Predict the 3D structure of the following.
Amino acid sequence: MIQRSHRAPRIALALLAWFAVLLQFCISINSAIQDGRGFASGLVSFLGFFTILTNILVCMSLTMPLIAPNSAAGRFFARSEAIAGVATSIVFVGLAYYFLLSNLFHPQGPQWLANALLHYVIPTLYLLYWWFTPSKRDLRFAHAVIWGAYPTLYLVYALIRGRIIGSYPYGFIDAGRIGYEKTLINGVGLLLAFIAIGLLLVGLGRFEPRRASSASAP
């Protein structure tokens, strides 16, 4: 059950996240159609990016407990470890983009807005949302390793997708250009970075309730 005090921020963040994803969707589809590639090609390209899939995950994690709190998805995304896992994923998106991709991409106009929302604004706001959610005591450091299944599955998906269509979403996992050995090395490095972020959030989450309890003690 969502606490009343957390309902309004969740709704506001959900609306902003959906806006960002839908804005990028419209941009991607319009670009594909203008280039003569068609709607289907635009959709395949859109769904190839870890950024997009993770922002959709953010949207689902915020929306399902609101619209279907008693469903399996609603109950799952209301759990503290699920919220922390999504926070780890979207923070990874922001950091990976800043350090690896921001100097390669210089968007303008609506694409600049979508890019800023997806890579900077949503990660920051979701991290704050996670920080102010209660009940982080059940987080375990093992959760960070479990959450690593998500980027691992994404890498498998990206490689299979790239093998089929001959296009990879990111240069550092472009097996067609840099080879599978280098791709897997890059993938392992990114996975370790992802797990490190998860471990940091678990550590902060486990510390914060104790700090709050100590501060409230007489």
